[in-house]
Specification:
heterodimer; A: alpha+beta; 60s Ribosomal Protein L30, Chain: A; Phosphoribosyl-aminoimidazole Synthetase, Chain A, domain 2; 7-stranded mixed sheet; 5-stranded mixed sheet; 14 strands; 25% strand; B: 362 residues; alpha/beta; Rossmann fold; 4-stranded parallel sheet; 15 helices; 12 strands; globular
């Protein structure tokens, strides 16, 4: 990254430019092994055990959308990031940056939603900060949340631990959040019931870990979608990943909207789904546990980890062909015709 | 079984049977061109190239609207975006296309008021909401989108939305096909003709082209079964030396197309010579606003200098669009030209040959 370049929106879209910004600008300056792992959070030793620590900022527009709002997203997002470290999330911090002129009614709605989300996840919001900035300096409200949790003894989950022979499980339908937000944001007047899937996944993760199944990788494919997350794992673990298009769970209305506007569900955000990579022998058991969770009913095995073409994700298409699923390169743009 | 008109045309068994038939029929190397960018995209997405015999080559043609937009047009849109009195509205694909010095995305980052829209009518709505600003829509497209743009211009006129205008870089498909056939070195055995365009033009629009060149030509849809069926038909025509012009997309395309849409298009636009990127000027292949609509024509409304246009050195977009080169034969491909830093427009649009090649092939 050159000093003369400017930051484009794509630098924040979770695709290749985001990764370039991280690896070329951020990581060299903050250089340390924990950050370099590039997992959803950092796991480190503390006296008496291991702790997971993660942070995320929420700037979603619109702040209220079908299936949730920015507050619910901010709590569930960080709860899930901590859970994806194989940890039990416990405490959350909240930083609110509020635009002058915001209605108390809206702020209260967001805070109530955060309180409900924290209760549902079983975490406590124990510290925080508020700032108010002049009108126009932020878009209504931005929220940062950080979370800490404890990693149970014996659990070792990381994006670099996928192994050939692992099955790839996704805990439910993909792209719901991305389509719900895009429909609202872009004023696409679809008469659909597509809702954000924002949900806490920590209870599901806890039960999976308690089962003793040797889970290698847990990730929540948020910004950038499943395609991008799987690419990250393939690179981190130096393995190939093979997906089967006919097994990808996509709800009918989501698929239809994607086809109309030319989006690929593999690159749209999820806010209540996880990807688990588990040895083949344990996959059935883990799948059963996930399916018993209220947010995992549609879980399926969508692919497998291979030793072919390390670093690459390949999709076997409906017609038996193959194509590469690359990391996406920025926000998807609607096609012209 | 209830017909949904979507799943049937993705059927794995039918697709596999079609592939088997193609493999049986083909006896000599064959080069087919899919004209339309949406076909290019579908071919990559469904992995169609990976199931076809090695002797069958699919070439991506000049049917991605962004890819054939002349550098001059991009530069002019950038100039429009830089005007403080203008809100520029555009389809998303155009945002990242590099002009001679900048792109619309780059101008947006510097503060220009550029808004991505999904329909020209959204642009018209922006104009109504901002009566004290000039709202310009970058009209880049083929027969598929031109009637809707004409409809928006008619609506603007009827409602007196005088701060709305369009910058027309619209293009017509048949003249480009004829130009391809007249270009030396172009080696194509058959055409997969565009489905969406044909919904408007009908099969009839391609009759003069077919009568003149007698080359196998099939109009088809965008699902794997549609595309494989068209390929099988083209192979069969070639093998039996009986070229034909066939409509394999009858569920959407009538021989006469959509006369009402064409009437609206002709009411507002007239044909003009226009420049296709990498190909050059093609006679009567553009659509510009008729004189009675000049006050909705941004090219007439704003006094803009002719841009100092420079084509990027080494970019082979033009030769790729004509089937003379594959994307990976361009010396910039995957080196200085990537989707993050595109040099030519074929690397920008999701329907561009280079972007599809980069994204989906190994």
């Amino acid at each position: 990254m050159n000093n003369n370049d400017t930051i484009l929106l794509d630098h924040g879209a979770g695709g290749k430019l985001s990764h370039a910004m991280f690896s070329e600008l951020i990581l060299p300056l903050f250089d340390n092994g924990l950050l370099a792992k590039q997992d959803d959070g950092a796991v480190f030793e503390v006296p008496g055990g291991r702790m997971a620590f993660s942070t995320d900022s929420y700037t979603v527009d619109p702040i209220f959308f079908p299936g949730g709002d920015i507050g619910k997203l901010a709590v569930n997002g960080t709860v899930n990031d901590v859970a994806m470290c194989g940890a039990i999330p416990l405490y959350i911090s909240v930083g609110l940056i509020i635009e002058e002129g915001m209605k108390i009614h809206d702020l209260r709605r967001i805070l109530q939603s955060m309180a409900r989300a924290a209760q549902k996840a079983g975490v406590r919001i124990v510290t925080g900060d508020t700032k108010v900035v002049p009108r126009g300096k932020v878009d209504k409200i931005f929220i940062n949340t950080s979370g800490i949790g404890l990693v149970p003894a014996g659990v070792n989950v990381s994006g670099d631990r996928a192994r050939p022979g692992d099955k790839v499980i996704v805990s439910g339908t993909i792209a719901d959040h991305g389509v719900a937000i895009l429909s609202e944001r872009e004023g696409l007047k679809f008469d659909s019931d597509v809702k954000s899937d924002s949900a806490p996944l920590n209870h599901m993760v806890k039960r999976v870990l308690e089962s003793g199944s040797p889970v290698h990788v847990l990730r929540d494919p948020t910004r950038g979608g499943m395609g991008t997350t799987l690419n990250e794992i393939a690179v981190q673990s130096k393995v190939g990943i093979r997906l089967f298009e006919d097994r990808l769970p996509v709800r009918g209305p989501v698929r239809a909207i994607c086809e109309i506007v030319g989006f690929d569900p593999l690159y749209l955000a999820n806010e209540g789904k996880l990807i688990a990579m588990v040895p083949g022998a344990d996959a059935g058991n883990v799948l059963d546990i996930i399916r018993r969770d209220e947010f995992g009913k549609d879980a399926v095995i969508v692919g497998e980890v291979t030793d072919q073409e390390p670093g690459r994700v390949v999709l076997e298409t409906l017609i038996g062909g193959t194509r590469v699923v690359d990391m996406h390169t920025g926000d998807q743009l609607p096609r012209i015709c | 079984m209830r017909m949904t008109y979507t799943q049937e045309f993705k059927d794995p068994e039918i697709s596999k049977a079609l592939v088997a038939r193609i493999r049986e029929k083909i006896t000599c190397p064959l080069r087919l061109m899919e004209v339309c960018g949406t076909h290019t995209m579908a071919i990559f997405r469904y992995g169609i190239r990976s199931v076809l015999p090695d002797t069958l080559t699919l070439l991506s043609g000049p049917g991605c609207p962004v890819c054939v937009t002349a550098q001059k047009d991009i530069d002019t849109c950038v100039m429009l975006a830089r005007r403080s009195d203008v809100i520029l509205t555009t389809f998303g694909d155009l945002m990242k296309v590099p002009g001679s010095g900048s792109s619309l995305a780059g101008e947006k980052a510097k503060g220009a008021d550029i808004r991505m829209v999904y329909s020209v009518f959204d642009a018209l709505a922006v104009a109504k909401e901002n009566p004290d600003r000039q709202v310009v829509f970058c009209a880049v497209g083929f027969e598929t989108t031109i009637p809707t743009i004409a409809g928006a211009v008619l609506t603007a006129k009827a409602q007196g939305v005088n701060n709305f205008s369009i910058y027309s870089a619209n293009k017509l498909t048949p003249p480009a096909l004829a130009t391809l056939m007249e270009t030396g070195g172009v080696d194509i055995d058959g055409f997969i003709l565009p489905g969406h365009v044909s919904v408007i033009t009908g099969l009839d629009a391609f009759v003069p082209f077919f009568e003149k060149y007698r080359i196998p030509s099939v109009v088809t849809g965008f699902e794997p079964v549609d595309i494989l069926k068209a390929i099988l038909m083209l192979v069969a025509q070639k093998e039996s030396k009986a070229p034909g012009l066939v409509n394999a997309y009858a569920r959407a395309v009538a021989d006469t197309g959509n006369p009402k849409a064409r009437a609206i298009m002709d009411q507002v636009f007239e044909k003009a010579d226009t420049i296709w990127r990498g190909i050059g000027k093609i006679q009567d292949s553009g659509m510009v606003l008729r004189e009675s609509f000049h006050k909705f024509d941004a090219a007439k409304k704003f006094d803009m200098p002719v841009p100092d246009t420079r084509e990027p050195a080494g970019c082979d977009c033009g030769r790729i669009l004509m089937g003379l080169k594959r994307p990976d034969q361009c010396r910039l491909y995957k080196k200085s030209c990537t989707p993050m830093h595109p040099v030519g427009p074929c690397m920008v649009s999701s329907e561009g040959a280079c972007a599809a090649f980069y994204k989906y092939s190994r």
